Structure formats: structure tokens, C-alpha cells
């Protein structure tokens, strides 16, 4: 029984560390002069293999809908990090927001 508790504790510690390591972040880029209005498009892009390969096709130009000035924000929200932690960082989403 003691061995089982030790093993369960190690698994829980690993899961907690994996969840903590998948922290939130935000990165923004200005295209042209940046967003002029309040219109916004949101999409999720998915990565596999600890973020090394992108498996979804997020077309930022299409999200901007022909605007010359817009702001692109890549962010990993708490929910994105939670999904990433549950999937042991083998696959996980990242939220992309385009403001124009």
C-alpha cells in the first residue's frame, strides 16, 4: 500500500508540474499602424509535440478581412494551459486574436 501511495504522489506531482509549466502568455504584433477599431476575430491554433509542430491552419490575413492596419495577439489563456496540461503537452491550443 505504501508503494502505491508513493507512486500516486509521484504521478500527481508530475501532473502539477506539467500544469504549472504550461503557463499563460501574451504576444502582440502591430501591422500597419495597429488596430483602429473595435472589430475582433478569434481563432485557436493547435500545436503538437510540445509546441514544435502546428497542425491547424490559422489564416491571419483572412481574419484581418483586407484591413491594412490591425493588431495580432497570440495568447495562451488559462483554459488553453489547462488543456495543454491535461494532454501532457503532447497537443495544445493557442488563442489568436486579430483586432482591426
Walk me through this protein's architecture.
Helix content is 34%, strand content 34%. It has 100 residues and is of the alpha+beta class. The chain has a five-stranded antiparallel β-sheet with strand order 1-4-5-2-3. The termini are far apart. It has one domain (2-99). Helix 1 packs antiparallel against helix 3.
Question: Could you give the topology of this structure?
Answer:
Blueprint (H helix, E strand, L loop, with lengths): L1 H20 L3 E7 L8 E9 L4 E2 L5 H5 L5 E7 L1 H9 L4 E9 L1
Antiparallel strand pairs: 1-4, 2-3, 2-5, 4-5
Helix pairs in contact: 1-3
- Range of strand content: 25-35%
Low-confidence residue ranges: none
Strand order of the largest sheet: 1-4-5-2-3
Count of DSSP helices?
3
Give Rg in angstroms.
18 Å
Give the total of domains. 1
Globular, elongated, flat, extended or rod-shaped: what is the shape?
elongated
Class from helix and strand fractions: alpha+beta
Order of helices and strands: HEEEHEHE
Number of strands: 5
Largest sheet: 5 strands, antiparallel
What level of helicity do the residues show? 25-40%
The mean pLDDT is: 84
N/C terminus separation:
59 Å
Can I get a quick summary?
34% of the residues lie in helices and 34% in strands.
List key phrases describing it:
5-stranded antiparallel sheet, 100 residues, 34% helix, alpha+beta
Amino acid at each position: 500500500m505504501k508503494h502505491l501511495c508513493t507512486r500516486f504522489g509521484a504521478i500527481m506531482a508530475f501532473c502539477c508540474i506539467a500544469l504549472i509549466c504550461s503557463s499563460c502568455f501574451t504576444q502582440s504584433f502591430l501591422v500597419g499602424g495597429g488596430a483602429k477599431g473595435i472589430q475582433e476575430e478569434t481563432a485557436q491554433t493547435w500545436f503538437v509535440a510540445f509546441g514544435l509542430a502546428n497542425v491547424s491552419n490559422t489564416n491571419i490575413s483572412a481574419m484581418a478581412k483586407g484591413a491594412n492596419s490591425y493588431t495580432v495577439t497570440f495568447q495562451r489563456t488559462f483554459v488553453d494551459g489547462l488543456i495543454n496540461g491535461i494532454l501532457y503537452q503532447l497537443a495544445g491550443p493557442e488563442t489568436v486574436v486579430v483586432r482591426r
